[in-house]
Design a protein that fits this description.
β12 (about 295), α8 (about 300-305) and β13 (about 315-320) form a beta-alpha-beta unit. The chain is built from nine helices and 17 strands. Helix content is about 25%, strand content about 25%. The protein starts with 15 loop residues before the first strand and ends with a strand. Among the domains are: about 80-245, Vaccinia Virus protein VP39 (Rossmann fold, 3-Layer(aba) Sandwich); about 290-375, NAD(P)-binding Rossmann-like Domain (Rossmann fold, 3-Layer(aba) Sandwich), CATH 3.40.50.720. The protein has about 375 residues and is an alpha/beta fold. The strands form four sheets. A seven-stranded mixed beta sheet has the order 7-6-5-8-9-11-10, sandwiched between helices. It has a five-stranded parallel beta sheet with strand order 15-13-12-16-17, with no helix packed on it. Strands 1-3-4 form a three-stranded antiparallel beta sheet, with helices on one face.
């Protein structure tokens, strides 16, 4: 059953205004082995709050529908490896020796940290899928207000988790209760403000159900008893690292009263650009004589392009670097997945790609495989 969230997640206001509806969107953004008939679809409706300018989805889907299994996000690619190394270094600047990580299912962050400094590292994750060599202690489950450990920790860490929370203030209040005064909350989040400004396709979806721009994060931290100690950007369009100290004396802040108009125009511009993009791509596809056509990304970016109207009737395969997706089907589509090496045997492959912060990295990789590749982007 859908979960109703008719109030602004920040202010509690009920003055939400519909921005856009994606009808019958795939509820899972990963790859599967089961038949197409088992896929589930739901309308994806985005609203904006007139009181805070927060963009958020309503209704939401049950967690078990959105996260039936791990889909490998954050595991593969040089950009993610560089992120984990940089974030591990950011954490190490505080020298925690006992760490609780929320949602670090693959364990890569703990491994990168232990290359810098030794620490007792515990991970709580609903779908643990640790990489080989992970030495962290894994607890299968969700972090909430009732979670307890037998020992205190120096820091609670999470990476690309906050934006998945349905009730971000409740999450921070649970963290406030768990973290002792003077101890740290250290986390990485996608730079969603830049993502939306640059029209990245994967910014908001069934997993990222609210627009967690930096000014909202900082407002929530201050109003929930966390004093920002350090803030660092990982690349201009990828992530923001925060280190915050539990502090009951922190002064609460207020939000800019112009965010409603700013964010509404930003989101509607994003929608318009994607419809125009798909119109252009479909027109070019209509003039392609061969069938060496591929779609890159067995993930939500491709599902979004299809939802915007991309014609995939002549697309042979979805390409993805995650070997665990090879031979599986992108959920919500009839398209199967192969690794980019398959392009070696193609004469003049055409790859449709919309990869956001990973775009340059991926196109360079593909051109090394087959320099004759052309892109629709």
């Amino acid at each position: 059953m859908p979960i109703n969230r008719p109030q602004d997640v920040l202010t509690g206001s009920t003055g939400l205004e519909i921005l856009h509806r994606f009808e019958s969107f795939p509820v899972f953004m990963g790859c599967v082995d089961h038949a197409c008939s088992e896929d589930v679809f739901a309308d994806m409706d985005f609203y904006i709050s007139k009181s805070s300018g927060m963009i958020q989805m309503n209704p939401l889907l049950p967690l078990e529908a959105v996260y039936p299994v791990s889909h490998g996000s954050g595991r593969v690619g040089p950009s993610w490896d560089a992120h984990h190394q940089a974030f591990a270094g950011f954490i190490a600047s505080s020298s925690p020796s006992k760490v609780l990580e929320i949602g670090g299912g693959h364990g890569m962050l703990s491994m990168r940290y232990n290359e810098i400094s030794a620490a007792s590292w515990i991970i709580i994750e609903p779908n643990p899928d640790p990489v080989e060599g992970c030495q962290a202690t894994l607890i299968k489950g969700f972090f909430d207000k009732d979670f307890r450990l037998c020992e205190d920790v120096d820091a609670v860490v999470h990476s690309h988790v906050f934006e998945h929370m349905y009730a971000p203030l409740d999450f921070l209040e649970s963290l406030k209760s768990f973290i002792k005064l003077g101890k740290r909350l250290i986390f990485s989040v996608p730079n969603m403000r830049v993502m939306l400004e640059r029209k990245f396709t994967n910014c908001l979806n069934f997993e990222h159900t609210l627009y967690l721009a930096d000014y909202y994060i900082e407002w929530m931290l201050a109003n929930c008893g966390f004093r920002i100690e350090n803030k660092e950007y990982f690349r201009s369009d990828h992530s923001i690292f925060y280190s915050a100290i539990r502090d009951d004396k922190i002064t609460k802040t207020v939000l800019d009263n112009g965010l409603y108009y700013l964010n509404k125009n930003l989101y509607l511009s994003y929608i318009d650009e994607h419809y125009n993009l798909i119109c252009t791509i479909n027109s070019r596809l209509a003039n392609v004589k061969h069938d060496e056509i591929f779609l890159f990304g067995a993930h939500v970016q491709s599902q979004y392009l299809i939802a915007f109207g991309l014609d995939v009737s002549r697309v042979r395969l979805v390409l993805d670097n995650d070997v665990s997706k090879k031979g599986k089907r992108l959920y919500g589509t009839t398209l199967f997945v192969e690794q980019p090496d398959i392009l070696i045997s193609c004469k003049t492959p055409l790859v449709i790609i919309r990869a956001g912060t990973f775009h340059t990295e991926i196109t360079k990789q593909i051109l090394k495989i087959n320099p004759a590749t052309e892109f629709l982007q």
